[in-house]
Design goal:
The chain is an alpha/beta fold. It is built from 16 helices and 32 strands. Strand 4 and strand 5 form a beta hairpin. Helix 4 runs parallel beside helix 11 and helix 15 packs antiparallel against helix 16. 57% of the residues are buried.
């Protein structure tokens, strides 16, 4: 099979689950769109086509209305596919195409039985995830969006005047590699400009580059000059769990915004633990008996199941009429509240554990409930243990903005290092992914629980699934503003212009409030307005990726197969650290190494000077340290020499950065190094 690049078993992948755009600087304090914003400069992404690979779409949502939109771009070749509860009339000038792909799913599971199939055999969204991500990337302005009256405001996607194409590749039990590939290939033929994929393999299943549908499909997109954005995964805070690892994908981590929907735990001793919730149900203003899930567990239930309030784990006699304190643990957050309610409890306090830190998730609980941070959870547990008759009250949630510090990395956001190739830093960037309000399927319950019968038009979800479409929307804006930029140039602009301080002017932090690093946020927190004018970019083309693949172990035949002109790999391909990537990573620095990068001018004439903050124990030299650009499109190269200092700590990653600046622009790249030995001086 000479035309076959690789053969691999199709796996089932997992979904990674609006104040955002104000937080990202697109509107001013008065609520008006800033004339300096990327929205204004890019005309809201007009006519760029964004393709979503997800669970489908709820087309009736106001976020997908086409009021005032012009004719569909003539380059669009896609269709609106007929299926269960979905016809061509469900598409319009905003939602210009919708398809579904299920053959791979059936091959992985079993042929669909339509009488028992719990989904729509069509592009219609039963889950809510796809509708949420689509509206986050490119939804229209919708006034009065809220959930149960909370988080009220004007909802919008990142590129409100772009066009949406939906590729339903995910079903009840996951997303098949084969369906993902089919969806991407269809999108390429249809005319999609930017792909957004809030899905990926589990961290322990990250595979070789070309045994993964997303890696292959996204490479095909890159070959066709299309940008591919994907989520980093929700395996955090465990190190090395980041997924979507190939360099031609923009891999997005998740962090918080500055909206705070607070609901507090009040104790009789006037101690208050501030938490977060979107519960529509409220307690009467009085104290209620309080018990821990562990103390209230049913006979024969182990302590873990009780403490974490697993389904059917609680004793009704011990819970009835009480508030139950449950550890966040491994089962669903809302499902814990269902267990408490079914046992007769009146409220729930969801306590973070140490690994969850201060990352609060606002959920639409089925009973009065709130989520508190780990330190407060420990204090509350101590109060319960030391009180004869512990009591508590949970206040009704209220939402406000301008919370500090923000952004903070979400505890679930999967960090690096890259488990497949450590010399490519992943994730690439972080964006809002915690407590994001967006459109939702009215076929799904508000909490996602089968025990919940509430339906909502807009919902708040958290995950790198939510951060991914933020960056896809920003990429669509940049594509509209700079239609001649390559996917790598857009990616570079997003990365090198990123922010590194929160709104309290401190360095970005983890959910534990420890200082974060590039394994958490990549190049930093996305800054759309700065990305509009980066000054310089690190550009890449198909030849660069070809040489990169030639360097990677066991990829020689794959690299040859991917080239259209049957080129062969050179005898000595360049180092993987020399890929012209916007970040610099050397995972095995044995004394001394040199890396090379090339910058392309996308601004005016200017002289840029390198400013280096060297990683601890590493000497960094840049040559030349000044670059003068005379015209747009001019390219200049520099080398970076990295040397391990005597006494440096071995075998541990250290972090720094290099910034090229002309006084106006700041083109910053993280430097990630793991020294393994030093040279004598």
């Amino acid at each position: 099979m000479p035309s076959v690049i690789s053969v691999f078993p199709s796996r089932m992948l997992a979904l990674h689950t609006t104040r955002s755009w104000g937080f990202l600087g697109q509107v001013n304090e008065g609520g008006a769109v800033s004339r300096h914003s990327l929205w204004a400069k890019a005309d809201y992404g007009r006519d760029v086509i964004v393709g979503l690979l997800d669970t489908g779409v709820w087309p009736e949502s106001e976020s997908f209305n086409d009021d005032g939109m012009g004719p569909i771009p003539s380059r669009w070749k896609g269709i609106c596919e007929h299926g269960t509860s979905f016809t061509a009339s469900n598409c319009n000038r905003k939602l210009i195409g919708a398809r579904y792909f299920i053959k791979g799913y059936e091959a992985n599971t079993a042929p669909i039985n339509l009488t028992s199939f719990d989904d729509f055999l069509s592009p219609r969204d039963k889950d809510g995830h796809g509708t949420h991500t689509a509206s986050t990337a490119a939804g229209r302005f919708v006034q009065g969006a809220n959930i149960f009256g909370l988080a009220n405001g004007t909802a919008s996607g990142g590129a409100p005047l772009s066009r949406l194409a939906i590729y339903k590749v995910c079903w009840h039990e996951g997303c098949s590699d084969a369906d993902i590939l089919a969806g991407i290939e269809a999108g390429l033929e249809d005319g999609v400009d930017v792909f957004s994929a809030s899905l990926g393999s589990a961290a322990d299943r990250s595979s070789d580059y070309f045994e993964d549908g997303i890696s292959i499909g996204s490479f095909h997109a890159t070959q066709r000059n299309k940008l591919f954005v994907a989520s980093a995964g929700n395996g955090g805070p465990l190190m090395g769990t980041v997924v979507n690892l190939v360099p031609w994908i923009v891999t997005v981590a998740a962090s918080s915004i500055d909206r705070d929907c607070s609901s507090s735990v009040v104790l009789p001793n006037n101690k208050i633990f501030k938490g977060g919730s979107l519960s529509a149900l409220h307690l009467e203003r009085r104290f209620y008996p309080l018990v821990s899930g562990g103390e209230a567990r049913a006979s024969g239930v182990n302590s873990t199941a009780g403490n974490e309030c697993f389904p059917k784990s609680l004793d009704r006699e011990k819970v009835k009429g009480k508030i139950v304190a449950c550890l966040r643990g491994s089962n669903g957050r809302v499902d814990k509240g269902v267990a408490v309610r079914e046992a007769g409890g009146v409220g729930m306090i969801l306590m973070n554990e140490q690994e969850d830190g201060d990352s609060i998730i606002d959920d639409a609980h089925v009973l009065p409930a709130t989520n508190i941070v780990a330190e407060d959870g420990a204090s509350l547990s101590e109060y319960i243990r030391n009180s004869r008759f512990p009591k508590a009250y949970i206040t009704a949630p209220t939402c406000s903005v301008d919370a500090t510090p923000a952004p903070v990395m979400a505890s679930f956001s999967s960090p690096g290092p890259n488990s497949l190739l450590p010399d490519v830093l992943k994730p690439d960037i972080t964006a809002p992914g915690l407590n994001i309000l967006a459109a939702y399927s009215e076929a799904a319950t508000a909490s996602g629980s089968d025990a919940d019968n509430r339906r909502v038009k807009y919902n708040v979800l958290s995950g790198t699934s939510m951060s991914c479409p933020h960056v896809a929307g920003i990429a669509a804006l940049l594509k509209a503003l700079h239609p001649d930029w390559s996917p790598a140039a857009i990616k570079s602009a997003i990365m090198t212009s990123a922010a590194h301080m929160d709104n309290s002017r401190h360095a970005l932090r983890k959910s534990s409030l420890q200082i974060a690093n590039p394994f958490n946020y990549g190049a930093g927190h996305v800054d759309p307005n700065a990305a509009a004018d980066p000054g310089l970019v690190y550009d890449l083309n198909e030849q660069d990726y070809f040489l990169f693949l030639c360097t990677v172990s066991n990829q020689h035949s794959v690299a040859v197969g991917l080239r259209r002109n049957n080129a062969t790999c050179p005898t000595n391909p360049p180092s993987t650290s020399d890929l012209n990537y916007p970040s610099i990573s050397v995972s095995n620095l044995a004394g001394l190494a040199s890396v090379t990068r090339t910058l392309t001018n996308v601004g005016g004439e200017g002289t840029y000077e390198a400013v280096v903050r060297a990683p601890a124990g590493i000497q960094v030299e840049i040559w030349p340290s000044k670059l003068h650009f005379r015209k747009r499109g001019e390219r200049k190269s520099f080398s970076m020499k990295l040397r391990v200092k005597e006494g440096a700590s071995m075998g541990e990653y250290v972090f720094g950065h290099v910034t090229w600046t002309d006084g106006k622009h700041r083109v910053r790249s993280p430097i990630v190094v793991k020294p393994t030995s030093s040279l004598p001086y």
